[in-house]
Each structure stands twice: as structure tokens, then as C-alpha cells.
Amino acid sequence: MVFEFLDESLKPIERKVQAGERLSIADGMTLFTTPDLLGVGRLANIVRERINGDHTYFIHNRHINPTNICIHSCQFCAFGVKADNPQAYMKTLDEIFDDASVYEQGQVNEFHIVGGLHPDLPYEYYLDMVRGLKERFPEVHIQAFTAVELGYLAELAGKPLKETLVELRSAGLGSIPGGGAEIFAQRVRKKICNEKTTGPEWLQIHETAHKVGLKSNATMLYGHLETVAERVDHLVQLRELQDRTGGFVTFIPLAFHPENTVLNFLPSTTGQMDLRALAVSRLMLDNFPHIKAFWIMITPKIAQMSLAFGTDDMDGTVVEEKIIHAAGATTDQIFHKNTIIDLIREAGRIPMERDTLYEDLHEVFA
Ligand code: V47
Asked: What is the pTM of this model?
């Protein structure tokens, strides 16, 4: 099919996309800057349909955020606080097990666990959390701890990262979420999260996880101090690691929410920016099987629109979300399965309920 583009500079990119050729850094820059957003979306849709057809995935999951107490003070984060803050909380393991059990019995198939770097909790707290959840809910996949948390846990354990990962996996850890990547460029990291895991360290932690057989997700926080070139660089670094390991499953662009953060003078991302971030990610990350529209971040309306802009995954039911809501997200925290299914169908796609690693897939009928 031949497309008419508003911007002729998309034509050479279209030729590459049709031929299944890899896009360059310069192509990434063009895609992020062209005024022809619909053209970018159409190109992303070609890749989406080539890889995933009309299938659109979702999962019945539950997020758990064990503590918001954090040794770091990232400028983009409204969730992390110090222990003396009135908002500070830390869930005991029993509270976490109780939280986990508050779901429609037998239907949730993933716990997604991320939290702050607590200054005083021992490594055993995390190990026992994973072990205790697995004992109580053996059928539920545990996707837990960002690369930043995993680096910290290895320090707490006093063990090499690889050994820590193997131990957590034996306790029941199933895979690793994509958080903590922010933007790899050191120029921006110095300003927004100076104390934290660097870009190369984040990549190294995921590479080690892939080598011990743990799959993971990847994210990119956009819409703060980063340039377009830094976004493209972030995507290319992920693509290179994926070429080496094949261990990434899903990429999730995360729209920056400025409220209650040090960066609250910045505007929120726009619908244009959100759709473009998703579409360009689909086009640049040619070796990632899935691109996820996290409805909590970008609203269900934009998430639904994005199904024509390269995305094939709507995340899931979530139930409790504290990180983005601390930064002003006004979306609900729980999405009922039927709402997700209706949004997918209305967009002309086929709803597919999945497990975390897209191994057990069920088309939803009726
Ligand atoms: O690492 C923190 C981001 C991440 C803000 O792997 C913010 O499937 C926007 O990674 N505005 C945690 N973003 C969430 C995350 C995630 C979410 C859904 C699915 C998956 C997955 C991973 O949230 C943090 C940070 O990058 N974040 N503060 C903020 N103000």
C-alpha cells in the first residue's frame, strides 16, 4: 500500500519499514520532530500488525508498593519520602500478604512489586516477601524490583548481583519490571536523579538478569529535561542490549507527571507527545516483541487511541497505584477487565488475556 505523507521526509523511512530494515538515529530524530504525527502512527501500525496482528494484550494483575521511604531524592519523583515525612509508610510482610489476597480469588496472575529504597530494611525482608507470596499464591507470577532496587538489594545482601538474582529467583521471582531507566543520558540523570544507578549500570543489571534467565521490561521517562536526541539514544541503547540478550519482553514509555515534584514548573505531556513516544518506540525498537500503553500514565483514552499508533498491550487491572498518583495522575487505580476488553474491541482489535511473559494467551470471546 502506498501512503501519502504530509511530510516527504517520512518516505525513505516508509521504504525501510516496508522492507523490515532497521531505522537509524537520524530516522529516530525525524520521527520525533516531523509534524506528520499521523504518518508516524501509520508507520508504527505496520510494524505493530506485522509482529502482533490485531492482538491486543492485557493482564489481570495487582501492583504492590511495599514502601515509599527512599534513600534517594529524585527530582521527578513525588512518591519517595524520608522516614519522618507524615506521608511515609512501610508495609509489614503480613500486610503485603493481606494486600495480595485482596483480589478476585484465583484470577490475578501477576503481582507487580516496586517501591522505595528503604534505609533500614534488611535483604531478608525482600527475600521473605517473594518467598512468602510464592508459598501463598503459587500460581501468581511475581514481577518485582526495578534494576535500581536490585542493585541495592545486592548491596544489602553483601553478595554479587548474579548470586542475589539467582537467590531471588529460587524464592519465586519470575521477572523484572522496567522501572528506574528514566533517561540514560548522564547530562539529564545528573539533574534529575544524581544519586541513583547510572544508565550503564541499569543496562548491566538487566544484562545480568537476562544471562541468568530472567526476562525483563524496559521503560523511558519522557517529557521532562531530556532532548529528542537523548530519547533516541535511550531507545538505541535498549535495542543494542536486546540484540545481545533477547531478554526484554515489553517496552513502556512513561509520561512524566510533574505535580508535587521538584520539577513542578514543567508542563504535563500532551496527547501528541504520548502517541508519538509510543509510535517512535514501536518503530525504533524493532527487536522488542511488545509496546505497552500504561493507561494509568496516559489515560485510558490515549491508551485506546495508541492501539492505532504501534501499541499492542494495555497493561492490566493494577488495583493500587501510588507512584504516578503521588505526582498528580487523575486516572483511576483499578480497571475492570471488561472495561479494558471493551476499549480494545471498540478500537477494532482482538482482546487477548495474557500471563506476564505472553506464554499463556487466551482470546476473549463474548
Ligand atoms: O521507575 C516516577 C516512573 C517508574 C514519576 O515493567 C514517574 O511493566 C512519571 O516502571 N511521572 C515506576 N513517571 C513504574 C514502572 C512501570 C509501570 C508500569 C509497568 C511497568 C512494567 C513498569 O515510574 C519509575 C519512574 O521511572 N516515575 N515518578 C512521575 N512523576
From this structure: 0.96
